[in-house]
């Protein structure tokens, strides 16, 4: 009997929620994707927010988040904040944050007015393959699931009465249901849409989006980006290039491969320059010695010639005096001339 009453009460809550949605009052339903920041409005807030209390309910569990304007939940303390209009702000929403949020007003510990309800639905996308398994040619299955308060809603009711749609689109917004490359299935029990495909080379960095539409209006979307693991780059040593141009020396590829050749070439250049300078100096000294020897030879020759001329002039003067003596015979003159020549040669030697 108690179970029947519980089922009837649950049915009435669902019916009330559906009727409120059909009548157009759907501001109390908020859709977001996991990882986003969300703001939940409090429609019955009093000024100052010191009387505002926020409670969270899911799976028959109720947790007080804000009490009289002060945060009380320790688990989500860092992600919760109260806005100036008493709205509840949640940072980096997770799929566990889905559920019913209730805003109440208390004055002197007495509740004022009625509760303001906000139903938070969270969209989450996951992959059946780990990042290391994502590669071209492999098969991958992507799951897009809408998390909601299962105590108050069913996916069938959201789809049938609320006009809820969960679809996959590409980067251009085209529904992938029309592409035979993708196998897409939908489970109304879990509000789960699965996409299966075989990855191609051109799928690297490609995005596929899961969208949630409520009454033909886009409420939220979650994106999955295909990322292939590239092999680590192997650094191969670059060859050492020796440039012959003196104006543009090449940058050495590594310290060990270039320092020794550069040093040896520099020492060789210095030694060759030193050798060339020494040889040039020797050549210059040889030329100087040759010039000095030539000058001395010319000088000695000139002195010898001058001495010869002087001697010859003195001998011939005597010979002239003798030849003037008419008492000498011709034969005596010949002997005299031979004697003079012999004497001249002897003196020279």
From TrEMBL:
Residues 223-259 are annotated as: Disordered. GO terms for cellular component: external side of plasma membrane; membrane raft. It holds the Pfam family V-set. InterPro entries: Ig-like_dom (IPR007110), Ig-like_dom_sf (IPR036179), Ig-like_fold (IPR013783), Ig_sub (IPR003599), Ig_V-set (IPR013106). Residues 1-24 form the signal peptide. The chain crosses the membrane at residues 287-308. GO terms for molecular function: MHC class II protein binding; protein tyrosine kinase binding. Gene3D superfamilies: Immunoglobulins. The keyword Transmembrane applies. Residues 35-104, 123-227 form the Ig-like domain. Coiled coil: none annotated. Residues 223-244 have a biased composition (Polar residues). Keywords: Membrane, Signal, Transmembrane, Transmembrane helix. One of its GO terms (biological process) is positive regulation of ERK1 and ERK2 cascade. PANTHER family: DIVERSE IMMUNOGLOBULIN DOMAIN-CONTAINING PROTEIN 1.1 ISOFORM X1-RELATED, T-CELL SURFACE GLYCOPROTEIN CD4. This is Ig-like domain-containing protein. It comes from Cyprinus carpio carpio.
